[in-house]
Amino acid sequence: RPCIVFIDEIDAVAKGRDSRLRSVGNDEREQTLNQLLTELDGFDTNKPESVVICMAATNRPDVLDSALLRPGRFDRRITVERPDKVGREEILQVHVNTQDLPLSDDIDLSSVAAETIGFTGADLANIVNEAALLAGRKRKDVVEHADFADAIERSIAGIEKKRNFLKGREKYIVAVHEAGHAIIGTAVSNLLPNLASEVEKLSIVPRSSGALGFTYIPPNDDRALMFETELRGRLAMLMGGRAAEDA
């Protein structure tokens, strides 16, 4: 019967071979790769009743052995990009439907998709799960937009470490640093209204990611290119924190 063979994380067994770096420890990996190549060449695809379609996935295509990618093996490559706004909304809807989450009337998944520019499908799945957990902890009957906002913030900056509040001089330095980011970020947004986003949130609460605070300036749309003025503005915003400390 026809069948589909799917190999996930194929880079684990099909990394490129380099004779200059070859060692005894790599023998098993090379034998595995050689056997995989042999099996791929052994499929008889001329008989419709015995067609085997081989598919593989990796997030490191640059390390794959060239022999694996030659015609007749994995010769058709499809790049899965990060989803755009429409794709993110559809992915969010899939996970909401899968979990059968009751949503409040104030939730518009289109707006949630607009707030998650650059997120992958796995990131979006995690956000839906996190929003549901946050709503459950607050004993809510429905998931509200605030729960999604908190879930997005956790995904970007990490979980708040509410028992480790900053004190004294340390708190002052972090506050000044984040204020510097926010001031310059706001100035850049006013100077480049069509390119730079506005500052959305400022915090000096330590996070599980290791950050002592953060200034959140979300991207305003899905774009593949950044202009020089936009890059200069972003650099100025990033340096604004250190400049504020020296002021």
UniProtKB/TrEMBL annotation:
Domain Peptidase M41: 166-246
Cellular compartments per GO CC: chloroplast thylakoid membrane
Homology family: In the N-terminal section; belongs to the AAA ATPase family.
Pfam family membership, one: AAA_lid_3
GO MF term set: ATP binding; ATP hydrolysis activity; ATP-dependent peptidase activity; metalloendopeptidase activity
Highest rank taxon of the organism: Eukaryota
Keyword 4Fe-4S included in the entry's annotation: no
Domain ATPase AAA-type core: 2-81
Keyword vocabulary terms for this entry: Hydrolase, Protease
Listed name of the protein: AFG3-like protein 2
Annotated ranges, domain AAA ATPase AAA+ lid: 106-148
InterPro entries, per database record: AAA_lid_3, ATPase_AAA_core, P-loop_NTPase, Peptidase_M41, Peptidase_M41-like
